[in-house]
Write a structure and sequence with these properties.
This protein is mainly alpha-helical. It contains 13 helices and no strands.
Length: 270
């Protein structure tokens, strides 16, 4: 059977495992991103990670751990400057986005020859994920998912009505800082799958699609996770079957789900 043949390859097993974990994680975080209108945050962090990748290439270190550390630093700086200045978060994200991207390009200019690490992060390389990348994905995903699940009610309340959450005794500053760090880590892990250009789609598309089809918050969360997993599994299967770029295929499948949800919503409305 084609599916059994596909899943028999070790690289496809790593791809499906990493994709399934990150699909759930990014969709879960995407719920809070959508509620807090932070869609630009994931995109900015993804582009900012280019500087971390360049530093790793220049120093001969593993790109993924260095990119994760760099993303956390950028996320915490954005969080601090939001409160230390009067600038809006999208302005700060734009500043760090362009500055980090420029720093990455500058550092890469000192490195001669072909740079496969840079290309894999720019365009995604889920089929080239190694065992160490899978282990990092499992550990980071488990830690973030555990925190999100334990504090889900507080995070949802904070995202829907932050002032009321403060009155209720929720430490919104601490939770927001941790949320920024979690989103930064998850985004960089997602970059490994979809690349810098496409990763924000996996954060936004599942939650946006689910929001059009559900009325309850619980249903919204559950359907977001289901749609994200369908995006990953369908996209990987199609890309393997027709020898297509995996990251772009996953995003186009998710976009197709989004338009189908629009059609279904219109039909149900009638």
């Amino acid at each position: 059977m084609p599916f059994l043949e596909m899943i028999s390859h070790p690289f496809m097993q790593r791809a499906f495992l990493s994709g399934a974990l990150l699909g759930v994680l990014l969709a879960y975080l995407g719920i809070f991103v959508t509620l807090r209108k932070m869609a630009f945050f994931g995109d900015g962090i993804a582009h900012s990670s280019l500087a971390g990748i360049a530093i790793a290439v220049m120093t001969g270190l593993a790109p993924l751990p260095v990119a994760l550390v760099w993303a956390v630093i950028v996320a915490l700086f954005i969080f601090w400057l939001e409160r230390a200045t009067r600038l809006a978060s999208d302005t700060l994200i734009g500043i760090f986005f362009t500055a980090s991207m420029a720093l990455g390009v500058l550092l890469m200019s000192f490195s001669r020859g072909y740079q496969p690490e840079l290309l894999s992060f720019l365009f995604g390389s889920i089929l080239a994920i190694q065992n160490v990348d899978t282990y990092i994905t499992i550990v980071v995903s488990a830690a973030i998912m555990g925190w999100l699940s334990y504090y889900f009610r507080s995070l949802a309340y904070m995202s829907l009505a932050e002032e009321n959450a403060v009155i209720a005794g929720i430490n919104t500053k601490l939770y927001t800082a941790i949320l920024y760090v979690a989103l930064a880590l998850a985004t960089v892990l997602g970059v490994k799958i979809l690349g810098v250009v496409l990763v924000s789609a996996l954060i936004i598309l599942p939650s946006a699609t689910s929001r059009m089809l559900t009325r309850s918050f619980r249903g919204y969360v559950a359907l977001s996770l289901v749609i994200s997993e369908l995006m990953i599994f369908t996209g990987l299967s199609v890309s393997y079957r027709y020898d297509l770029p995996s990251g772009a295929t996953v995003v186009l499948v998710g976009t197709g789900f989004f338009f189908l949800a629009n059609v279904l919503r219109a039909v149900l409305a009638r």
